[in-house]
Design brief:
globular, mainly alpha, about 110 residues
C-alpha cells in the first residue's frame, strides 16, 4: 500500500512515503505493522505458552510496542502536519475492532 499510494520516490524504500496513506488497512488502524501485529503476536504467545515468564515478558513487550506508537504518531505529525492529526481523529491507533466499526459507520453515512 505504501509503495502504491504513498508516492514513494523511485528506488527508495517503501517507508519513504511522501503522501499520507489512509486507505486499505490504514483506514482501520494507524499502526497495523508495528503496533497491532506485534501486540497480537505477543498476546498469542502468552496464550499458547501459558507460562508466567511469557506473561511477564509479553506484557512488558506489549507496553513497549504500544509506547512506540505514540512516538510514531509524533513523527507522522511532524511529517504530515494537520492532515495526520485529522487522520488520528478518524482512525484508532491499534484497535482493529474499533477501527472496523468506525470504517463501516463512515461508509454507510457517506
Amino acid at each position: 500500500i505504501f509503495r502504491r499510494k504513498g508516492k514513494v520516490p523511485k528506488g527508495k524504500s517503501y517507508i519513504k512515503t511522501t503522501a499520507l496513506v489512509d486507505s486499505g488497512l490504514y483506514a482501520i488502524v494507524r499502526h497495523p505493522q508495528n503496533g497491532t501485529t506485534w501486540l497480537l503476536i505477543n498476546f498469542g504467545i502468552i496464550l499458547i505458552t501459558r507460562h508466567w515468564t511469557s506473561l511477564v515478558l509479553g506484557l512488558f513487550s506489549m507496553i513497549l510496542v504500544y509506547a512506540d506508537t505514540f512516538k510514531e504518531d509524533q513523527r507522522c505529525i511532524e511529517k504530515f502536519g494537520e492532515e495526520y492529526q485529522r487522520y488520528m481523529e478518524r482512525v484508532p491507533r491499534v484497535n482493529p475492532l474499533s477501527g472496523l466499526v468506525r470504517w463501516v459507520v463512515r461508509r454507510t453515512s457517506a
